[in-house]
Amino acid sequence: MRTLTVCNFVTVDGRYEDDDHDIVSFFEHQHPDYHGVDTFDHHTTSLLAAADTLLLSGRRSSLGNLEYWAGVRRDPDATAIRRRFAELFDRVEKVIVSDTVTSADLEPYERTRIVAVADARQEVASLKQADGRGILILLGRVLWNDLMRAGLVDELQLVTFPLIGGGGVSLFDSRPPIALKLLETRAWQESGNVLMRWRVDPVS
User: Fold this and answer.
1) Where are the domains of the chain?
2) Residue 193 main-chain phi, psi, to 5 deg
3) What is the CATH number of domain 4-202?
4) Which of these, 195, 42, 55, lies nearest to 123 by C-alpha position?
């Protein structure tokens, strides 16, 4: 059985994005010692390298990711780790959960298909029963909150950045019926990022 892993950036005060649905403003007060350090890129690349399927959600986020990482592959100034992520992103099966993304939107992109929002839980359950390596969600808060409520998330990885949002969108939209068991913690001194890996168990 395949496992579904969620990995998400989060601020110290538990924010996922600002009120404009972006994270750029969070970095206005980043400590200067951490500027340009890419430990998060290395971590997410290692997760993607271990996965066969990447779940994306929402029109804006999905199409934005497809366009962005296609651009990175062609950008000679991109860092080596971002080019590696872009290569893996291109090769992996990408399942987009959306009711507004169309086949025409995806014509420039290979190994990409659409699943309706109402069918997401069943699709993920089927993916987990199939052969293959891991299933991964990077960001995608609305999707993974719903999948967690449905008991379909196996591991939650939260990488806390040394940033205070002071407002914006909370990481969780409800209290899911799950219990968390700590698997690992890791701190990257060079970036100030702290990883917490949690096994997600249903509440008995």
Assistant:
1) 4-202
2) -80, 145
3) 3.40.430.10
4) 55
The 3-class secondary structure across 87-115, one letter per residue, is: HHHHHCEEEEECCCCCCHHHCCCCCEEEE
Q: Please name every residue paired with 199 in a beta bridge, in sequence order, or none if there are none.
A: 155, 181
Question: Could you tell me the two tokens for 127?
Answer: 């993916």
Tell me the C-alpha to C-alpha distance, in Å, between residue 88 and each of 52, 77, 164: 10, 18, 31
Segment holding 84, helix H or strand E? helix 80-91
What are the CA-CA distances from residue 180 to residues 17, 95, 140, 166, 197 (Å)? 23, 26, 19, 26, 9
**Predicted TM-score (pTM) above 0.90:** yes
**Burial status of residue 190 (CB atoms within 10 A of its CB: 0-12, 13-18, 19 or more):** exposed
Separation CA 127–CA 7 (nearest Å) = 18
Other C-beta atoms closer than 10 Å to the C-beta of 24 total: 9
- Tokens 């290569």 correspond to 87
- Residue-wise pLDDT tens digits, 72-121: 999 999 999 999 999 999 999 999 999 999 999 999 999 999 999 999 99
Backbone dihedral region for residue 86 (phi beyond 0: left; psi -120 to 50: alpha; all else: beta): alpha
**Residue 8 and residue 172 in contact, taking contact as beta carbons nearer than 8 Å:** no
Of 27, 40, 38, give the one whose Cα is nearest residue 139.
40
